[in-house]
Design goal:
Mean pLDDT: 95
Helix content: 25-40%
CATH class of the largest domain: Alpha Beta
CATH architecture of the largest domain: 3-Layer(aba) Sandwich
Strand content: 15-25%
Oligomer: single chain
Largest sheet: 5 strands, mixed
Number of domains: 2
Order of helices and strands: EEEHHEHEHEHEHEEEHEHEHHHEE
Radius of gyration: 19 Å
Bound molecules: oxa(dethia)-CoA
């Protein structure tokens, strides 16, 4: 297990640039699947889903709509908000557990769809923490001068890895994509601190076991439903609360700020009870947390960028505001970033 941090106030050293978000965008598919719809599919109730998770509905992609299609639309919106052309993008990172294909990487598909022909493209997989990890990686490219304008995307078509016969998981997830444009900026704006961590001893608790090199796709893996997500919900819950609480606290400490300085916390949107538990651990009033999971469910790597984009467009996050993002996911992986927008 390790935790790494980038120096607080990155821009202040004179050598390192600060890096900030100059545009956000998001996209969710049109089709809405409600709890009432799920009542007809598995043995569940709206009451169980709402009280145990807080989720009321989620969006489901069309069959012909791949992760890159959603990612491209979110990217177009982020680029438009930033006033940046696709040709100016020189780095695209897509965080996803549901790539279009094993390879080529989904970022290459996005590149082609939006016409970002000058970009270097790759995917990053850290499950629900993937978007924060990807922003951290892209920031290092910009700080070192290896890139000037990065497009960082969290995008998921979880509906295609959801076991629609498993009531314990199928009620929780949804599809969507969120994107940010990153560029260098003058301190004291930009990322003030990021912490990340992982615990590979707990890989078994949240996974898609089939279809990789350990258990390549076969009639047997399909019959055993190994190509779908499997989760030990209670264990994931406990670890998520502890790791996200600690990560947010550590990132804030490294930024030299306190919770009083924070305008908005954007947590990974897995379960309202997880969000409430973190909020209580940190001692933050509910109005400082941006929560949209009741409308989208858990969109894994897409959860934070979609919530961030909504919060920006709704005026909940303004220029100069300090925002804390915090995530947790399979691996386990976790992370938190503090940014002055
Ligand atoms: O993105 C990061 C990854 N994911 C998460 O962070 C999710 C973390 N975990 C959770 O959010 C929660 O553990 C769940 C929402 C998945 C489950 O809530 P829980 O309070 O931990 O419930 P449970 O799994 O202990 O299940 C309680 C009961 C069980 O019945 P018995 O054994 O008590 O008779 C389940 O079989 O609820 C039953 N159950 C359901 N009942 C109706 C499980 N799923 C359902 C369902 N509808 N959909």
């Amino acid at each position: 297990m390790k935790t790494q941090a980038q120096p607080a106030a990155e821009g202040s050293s004179g050598t390192a640039k600060s890096v900030t978000i100059v545009g956000t965008g998001s996209y969710v598919p049109e089709r809405v699947l409600t709890n009432a719809d799920l009542e007809k599919m598995v043995d569940t109730t709206d009451e169980w889903i709402v009280t145990r998770s807080g989720i009321r509905e989620r969006h489901i992609a069309r069959e012909d709509e791949a992760t890159s299609d959603m990612a491209a639309e979110a990217s177009r919106r982020a680029l438009a908000q930033a006033g940046v052309s696709a040709e100016d993008v020189d780095l695209i990172i897509v965080a996803t557990v549901t790539p279009d294909m094993v390879f080529p990487n989904t970022a290459c598909f996005v590149q082609n769809l939006i016409g970002a022909r000058n970009a270097t493209c790759f995917d990053l997989e850290a499950a629900c923490s993937g978007f924060l990890y990807a922003m951290h990686v892209a920031s290092q490219f910009i700080r070192t001068g290896a890139a000037r304008t990065a497009l960082v995307i969290g995008a998921e078509k979880l509906s295609c890895v959801t076991d629609w016969q498993d009531r314990a998981t199928c009620v929780l997830f949804g599809d969507g994509a969120g994107a940010v444009v990153l560029q260098a900026c003058e301190a004291p704006r930009g990322f003030l601190a990021t912490v990340t961590g992982s615990d590979g001893a707990l890989t078994d608790l949240l996974k898609i076991p089939g279809g990789g090199s350990r258990s390549p796709t076969s009639v047997e893996t399909i019959e055993k439903r190994m190509h779908y997500m499997q989760m030990v919900g209670k264990e994931v819950f406990k670890n998520a609360v502890r790791s996200m609480g600690d990560a947010a606290r550590n990132a804030l400490e490294q930024s030299g700020l306190t919770l009083d300085d924070v305008a908005c916390v954007v947590p990974h949107q897995a379960n309202i009870r997880i969000v409430d538990a973190i909020r209580e651990r940190l001692g933050v009033p509910p109005e400082k947390f941006y929560v949209n999971l009741e409308r989208f469910g858990n969109m894994s790597a897409a959860s934070i960028p979609v919530a961030l984009d909504e919060a920006v467009r709704a005026g909940r996050i303004k220029k100069g505001d300090v925002v804390v993002m915090v995530a947790f996911g399979g691996g386990f992986t976790w992370g938190s970033s503090v940014i002055r927008m």
